[in-house]
Design goal:
The structure holds four protein chains of four kinds.
Chain A (H helix, E strand, L loop, with lengths): L15 E5 L6 H8 L11 E2 L2 E2 L5 H7 L1 E3 L12 H11 L7 H15 L14 H14 L4 E5 L7 H16 L3 E5 L3 H7 L2 E6 L2 E6 L1 H6 L1 H18 L1
Parallel strand pairs in A: 1-6, 1-7, 4-5, 5-6
Antiparallel strand pairs in A: 2-3, 7-8
Chain B lengths: L2 H32 L6 H19 L3 H22 L12 H22 L9 H4 L1 E4 L2 E4 H23 L1 H11 L1 H6 L4 H26 L7 H14 L5 H17 L5 E5 L1 E5 L8 H13 L3 H12 L1
Antiparallel strand pairs in B: 1-2, 3-4
Helix pairs in contact in B: 1-6, 1-7, 1-9, 1-10, 1-11, 2-3, 2-4, 2-9, 2-10, 3-9, 6-7, 6-9, 7-9, 10-11, 10-12
Chain C lengths: L6 H19 L7 H26 L8 H16 L4 H23 L4 H21 L9 E2 L8 H24 L1 H11 L1 H6 L4 H27 L1 E2 L1 H4 L2 H15 L3 H21 L4 H14 L4 H13 L9 H8 L10
Antiparallel strand pairs in C: 1-2
Helix pairs in contact in C: 2-6, 2-9, 2-11, 2-12, 3-4, 3-9, 4-9, 6-7, 6-9, 7-9, 11-12, 11-14, 12-14
Amino acid sequence: MAALKDVSFDIPENQICGFIGPNGAGKTTLFSLITGAVRPSAGQVHFRGKDVTGMSSAALVKRGVARTHQVVRPFKAMSVLENVQVAVHYGRHAVTRTAVAREHAMEALKLVGLDRKANVLASAISLGEQKRLEVARALATAPELLLLDEICGGLTGSETGAMMELLHRIREGGTTIMYVEHDMKAIMAVCDRITVLNFGQKLAEGKPEEVQNDASVIEAYLGKSTFRDKKRG
Amino acid sequence: MDAVEYLDLLLKALLLAGVYAAMAVGMTVIYGVMKIVNLAHAGFLMLGAYFALEMFQRFHIDPILGAVMALPVFFLFGMLVHWILVRWLPKSDTPTLASLLLMFGFLLVLQNVGYLLWGTEDQSILTPLTLSSVQIGEISIAKVKLVVFVAAVVCMIVLQIVLHRSWFGRSMRALIQNPYAAKIVGVDDQRTARLTFGLGTAFAGFAGALLGMLYSFSPDFGRPFLLRSFVIIVLGGLESVSGVALGAIVLAVLETFSTAIPLPWYWHKWSFYYLPPSYQPVVPFALLVLVLVIMPKGLAGLFNRKWKAA
Amino acid sequence: MKRPLGAAGWIKVILPWILLAGLLLLPATHPSDNLIRLLFITAVWTTTSLGWNLLGGMAGQVSFGFAVFFGLGAYTTALLMHAGHSPYFGFVGGAAIAMLASFLIGLPTFRLRGPYFVIATIGVTEAVRVIMNNLDVTGGASGYRITEDKPFSPLEHYYTAIAAVALAFVVSMVIAGSKFGLALRAIKQDEDAAADLGVNPFTSKLWIHAIAAGLTGIAGGIYARRAAFFYPGDVFAFQTGISILLMPVIGGIGTVWGAVLGGVVFGMVEEELVVHFPNLHLLIYGSLLIVIILLEPDGLLGLLRRLFRLFRRKREDSGSPDADQILWGRGGVEGRKF
Amino acid sequence: MRKSQIFVGGHFRRITALAILLGGITFFPGSMRALAADDTITIGVVLPTTGSESKPGQYQKEGIELAIKQINDAGGIMVKSKGKKLKINEIFYDDGTDSKKSASLTERAMSSDNAVAVLGGYSTALGTAESVMADRYKTPWITTGAGATAIFGKGYQYAFGTLSPVALIGTTTGEFLGSLIDQGKLKKGLKVAIVVENTDHGVDYVQGFTEWSNKHAGYFEIVLNEKFELNATDFSGVLQKVKTSKADIFLSDAHLPDYITMHRQYLQNGLHHQMVSYGARGPEAGARQALGAGTDYIFSGIWWSNKLPYPQAKKFAEDYKAFTGHDVDSWYAAPAYDGMRILAKAIEAAGSLDKTAIRDALKKAQLKDSVLPGQVLKFGANGQSEYPFVITQNKPDNKVDIVFPKDAATGPPVAPTPNK
């Protein structure tokens, strides 16, 4: 069974594009296809006019495509600052000097509000902070396109609010965002465009309010989603 | 070489495969349930050989019987090792370096205990049986190889029955196939792990006793067999007992025939070249690296891939 | 970001210099031949320990296969010296060949992860040893002999070995403090996450493998030149490979000082303890390894630090995490967390 | 952290346990070295008494220690420069059959223990590693267990050996088999399969045999010449080749552990040849006990046998039994015994404990009542001694006879060997 079938779309520059769909709709697979973790059996990924299909994630980062993971993966035995520093050193700008890299890393940490935890081990901060660290690391690679995978899962309401605030700021900095989220409210509030996936196929595409009113989406997705959200608590 | 000689070799390879399978199966069950790469396997093999030797020399117990007696003894020993050392390891669904290094440290301890108890000389278990052979036409087969083969195969069959008929076997297989689901339906993973470690050790001791009947041994005896066990379980797909049988046959055949098959060789012109016997020990090691790199999921993985493609 | 160095910080900065000065000046006190020999062999082992630690400690790729590089260093140096070159050129050549071999080994095996990589390296060493045993160019299992016309000078060998240790130490320190070192530590903890930040794990591992192999090759060459006779069953032995691995693991994996400590302890045990108790070293290493895995992942260095802290309870853990990470860092063996 | 918390929780307990371990390993037994008294002669002995060569190493150690005991019981060695007889102080090191340790322990004996000479080096591999140290420290070194010529071909000035060259085993084997052909016991044009260990020992053996065979055309046809790895566990590959080669004679050159393992697999494979030899191995009690009747009729070219008809050889065998409590097993003890004796002679001749003087004396020394074949032990120009080999053959019921050369023979050779 294919996780994704005949999904085709464009991401316009400097927008926040949301992707929604029930569990197993293929959202994470989509990200993995784009960042080279999974090779597509057919089809292509283009970035700024160039074919980047199957390119390794490290190479994509160098071209300006970075992603976060649904399950956070901080380097636990390194400090928060060092976590971000890796990204600055090996990101698009490949900063060599340590002092400069630290400055950039601190900027990224300030942006997500983790600057005060810079010298704490990454294993010692809370899950919410780790989620923010994940975003800060991706951000520190200086991406032109940022892929965010469920960065609000497990966060409290106010944390989610702060995260949405952050996304706006990132976009203002000139970065395009692809955003997968299960939390409907969050995604409706922040996205410029939304694509709905279901069973590996594109169901609808458009502005948030258009999608919200799309009959097929309501029938196929939203009903179930409400049920699922309840179950997840 | 004529047809009879090839037949002779094939027969020898199959007999060898029997003991190879018994040797590797202990490692497979431990890996399957606990995801531990058990380097101490070499130590258990060595202890098994010395166990049979001691039984034979002190109590004049036939080594085959000694090998069977090794099963319960090493079962308890394995559970003890698990209780003292292994259970402190953090649980993991993927093999960890910590577990590998812990078992390696234990191997060093076992080896040193071997040196202290039995010295460093080569020992061998010799009964009238171990030196005689049966002659079938032009083919002669060592009797001991036949006996060892039968013992190994019987034990493998018993293991299969245990795995498929008992609650322990069922919970073991459940843990191998899906640890999460197994725990949810109430499989006691700690207890199963302890029993599994015992079972794996029991088989290592048993196989060690059998190997001790075939080869001479010293406390450093297990290492080449450890690597062969790896080759076999990787070929067999790491977690399946029947895969082990397949892997054992492949390794035994390749090893046995490696020096007997002319290899085409191009140097100005095509010619044939036999691998000198002194290079034969390379075969399992090279195979190990090759198998790991080319088909980490084993032969079964290769077949599955083919089927998927078809 | 400059932080004022505390007393402990100063010790860390000065200690290597004091040690180096002590080692360089030692011959002036007319020590016994045996002490010089002991320090020589300890220095050789410490060089390999530091080398292994780069790959195994910093990048987290545990290899049982460093005997290959040690042996290749030994043989290359010997063959170059036989061809009339200076031994120092031989050491460089040994390093180069070892690095070349590291690429050949790394290209296929670095596709494997964790224990699979470990097992593959075991296979590689065993195979290489058998091949070297049968290779005619190198005299096969009969071994190879280096004949030098100059009279034997223990001090020259001693200083060469000290230089090698210093080189390995400096290389380790530079890498530990560089962005490459940071990337290696990231790879050790999570290869995929590191790749998502732009680090190429495969090439990073290849390069650090090469650097580690080069250092080990130099050590092999220095060892071989002094031993003057060696054979595959000795330099390419599995035992050599595990010795190289045990040193940093016992000393404190992932930390530069741990690797040094491990090398020194190992040298002492091998050369002094084994003389009097020939049949206990495996037991010692084995039990140390078990203790380290189960109780103290940071090895003897971690233990020292613990003892140190026992007397100075008040000291904060993350006073200066950067320096701490590099020098004392909680490396630990992957998978073991407290 | 679940259960293990209980285990690792106690801070103090953990520290204590680790401290004990740390203390244990850093315990530095440097003070354990016995201080040599001024009026003794320090002799270093480096042999493997553990590891795969532990048995021969032990026998050689016993041979040397028997000689030392006899010399000391007689008051010691007369040293002119000191004006009195000095006793020998032996410093023994076990190298564990590890060449790295052989070399470093020899070095240790020469440099920090100040031995005037070092004896030892059993097996070619370990002996070669030690030989390097002799000239480096200008200390006489006598190997009593390494017979490969490669050790002595390097222009070393301080290296000596009491084993006749290994190549001579091959030559003597050729001579012996040739004599059997001449007597009509074996047929001319015998197909010979040679399988040797891949060390200098094996290389020399093959060279010796082929040299004889080339000189005497028509006697042998070498149909197989293969090598195997030292200390192997499995010889099935090489034995398969032997089987395929359809040879009449099976010649091997192996060390003791490999001899036992290989011959056992030889028997298991149901192989049989007209004559079988494992070079310098064959009559060892351990092997005969292990393999029983399977070792009957194996012939071996060895440096010494207790069947030698010399009175001093008989006396040595008796003394050895009284000293160690067991019979002398094969040849190992004799060259070691004589090595120590010739060294004592050289020290006495040198008249001082100066190492170079002892070296010079060793070059000229002759041991006139040697227990070894030929009854006179002396070193050749390259440092290696050369004396004839004896061929022994195992006979049923654990008997051994010297069967060649004729003048030393204690029984007739059995050829071809009966196929049970």
